[in-house]
Amino acid sequence: MAEETGVTYETVGAEYFEKRGLKRYAGVFSLWALGVGAVISGQFSGWNLGMGTGGWGGMLVATAIITAMYLGLTYSIAEMAAAQPHTGGAYSFARAAMGPWGGFITGLCENVEYVLTAAVVCFFIGTYLSAIFETPPEFQPLYWIGAYILFVGINAAGVALSFQVTVVVTLLALASLAVFWVSAFPQADFLKYAMNVGPGGTVLPEGHGPFLPAGIGGALAQLPFAVWLFLAIEQLPLAAEESHTPQRDLPKGILAGIFTLIASALLVLWLNSSIPPGTADLSKSGQPILDGFAVLYGGGLAKALSAVAVAGLVASFHAIIFAYGRQIYSLSRAGYFPRALSVTNAARKTPGLALAIGGLVGLAVMLAVWFGLGAEKGAAVIGGALLNMAVFGAMFSYVMQGLSFILLRRKFPDLPRPYKSPLGMAGAGLTVIIALVTIVYQLKDPIYRTGVLGVAIWFAIGIAYFAVVGRHRLVLSPEEEFAMSKGASGGH
């Protein structure tokens, strides 16, 4: 037994890790697809919901600020992931920098983010499918249940299949966006449609409105929505132990992914807003790309194209299921969560129980909200409060990861770093500042405050379990061994 900072480690035999083995498969291309796929749904739905007051110009300013935050974050995690190539990702970085409690709190932030992001994306899948097949709102839960069963099953079936599906659906998603961009460009009238929001959220039928109809405050209020354009790119380090050469490939995959997403986000923001119905109506849409296809091609063909566009949502749903599965797995393997959740299938080497439990929690939250509040109110809460909970968990984790980068540079200056961030501590510091500003603007919005309360309850349950049970049953997993040896040991 070993003890450190109020926690206790139990000795386990080699068979413990044999039952929790993973299989290496991914290269740079697969990692790029995983990163882009995890995010791409946010460019199909969600980003647009903040433009009703702040307008297109406000959204552009917010997107520029959030892009700076994600560049600081991705360069920082590229360095940390190459130096600590373990499945734990953000938890691993914070554990080495801040000790067991810091690692656990950071892991809990990501747990909220990934489990609920998957749920929100699943909700948007149901929204798109309902619009395509013209099914009544009451049918939505069946779409959700079917989506979880299918994609949890694919993730559990093996890492090779999981990554192969990720590549296919990510390429389909990008292809459908490319078709939209090419189709929208000739019909775009930026000044008339994108600039049709006036002061106070008034609709200007002829456009030509002010760049910032609600001033800089309106732009800052859109920060939480701009996050949706990039949310979950930070999950890539969770694939470290399933990558052939993570020290080399993780930085390449992360950076290729973020630059792909920046280009795509700017094209979506410009072209989706520059065709009818324009920014004002787009700000209320649950399926902005579908609305755009309907304008460009009319009903029948638009539905066919939008069926392909669902690939964007599917890509994110599938990739984020991978993320919460590995995130639960890593915290469980180290003893922070119940250890049974980290057992992998003997043949397929996938954490089936972690995948299933994360899915059941996300689905249970959605169904409780839907049936507890009714279809109309339930849809608003899932698309609002749950999305806000996911974003809040992400922002808190970005603060912790930025601080981890700074602390690791100071505490372990001689740690081998196969990749070094060119933005250094300034980039990490910028990430922390922008994430904190985004949290402030979340707290100013009454709808977001409801989501923050939900995160507080999630945290209370997690922290209570760790304080009473988990901290007395920790295991020297690769992440823990790395931290305990101050980087001298790479783990198992």
TrEMBL record:
Subcellular location: Cell membrane
Gene3D superfamilies, sorted: Amino acid/polyamine transporter I
Main localisation: membrane
One CC-aspect GO term: plasma membrane
Transmembrane segments: 25-44, 56-78, 114-133, 139-158, 165-185, 211-233, 254-275, 295-324, 353-373, 379-400, 421-441, 447-468
UniProt entry keywords in alphabetical sequence: Cell membrane, Membrane, Transmembrane, Transmembrane helix
PANTHER family according to UniProt: AMINO ACID TRANSPORTER-RELATED (PTHR42770), MEMBRANE PROTEIN (PTHR42770:SF7)
Protein name, entry field: Amino acid permease
Organism whose genome encodes this protein: Phenylobacterium glaciei
Taxonomic placement: Bacteria, Pseudomonadati, Pseudomonadota, Alphaproteobacteria, Caulobacterales
